[in-house]
Amino acid sequence: MQLSVTFLGTSGAIPTTQRNPSSLFVAREGEQLLFDAGEGTQRQMMRYSTGFSISHIFITHTHGDHVLGIPGLLQTMDFNDREAPLTIHCPRGTRRDLRSLVTLLGNHPTFPVTINEVGDGDVASRGEEYEVRAFETDHDTRSVGYALVEDDRKGRFDRERAEELGVPVGPAFSKLHAGEAVELEDGTVVDPAEVVGEPRPGRSLVYTGDTRPSDRTLEVVDEPDLLIHDATFADDRVERAADTAHSTARQAGSIASKMGAKRLALVHLSSRYAGQSGDHLEQAREAFSGDDEDVFVPSDGDSLELPLLED
To answer: What pLDDT is recorded for position 271?
Structure first.
């Protein structure tokens, strides 16, 4: 079951020749989602062959480097005769701003566009066997982060044990795995708990958008497979990070360690570092309790598959 992330834009507020402003593309079993849409996002989608069949756009906040790609993207969708509806999720109190972007310069998409305001703890969207939750972040404007959380999977079916109990091979196996008891020919009732293990957690990823370090991030998901966290500055600008409501790479590493994240992606790097991310990596890894290779600074266009563990 596919769950992949493509980093379309990893720069801070100012784009560089190597990095576009913020945008993240997520594909899950044929469904396509977009998180933030900085300037030039549609070109990044073309460049990295994601396609435009997104069903939802999740906006963390309405600063330009996170939303200025929306007007052009919607116009391109219109030119391509899109008919499918699109939902744009945004922090509470920003609907009017998003509506202005959608209709910029008199543009009125011919396909349905719904704007959905969300706040801390809201389920922004419910998909097939997963949901996207909004959570409060600490930026200098109305802002939220998002967590994509898959439903728990069924426990593993113990075929050997079922056969030992006399369950005939066939439909009875499926009934037990679906949680239904099965009565055997001799009247014995086999309960699902006898042959089905504990539910197995699905995968999860957390995207903070721009934020200072926040305890709320720690609470949204336990041990996410991937945390994508603001790491605008290195230690040399820790006071600047606090003043501008951003995080340092070391702070991102500490948050990832506290929440038990399996992997950490450092994004929204300030253009002042001119493509030099060595300090970011070193400092985040010093604060992270996992393996060094599980902390990385993605480049635009990098893709990552989140595997479905079978344990």
So the answer is: 93
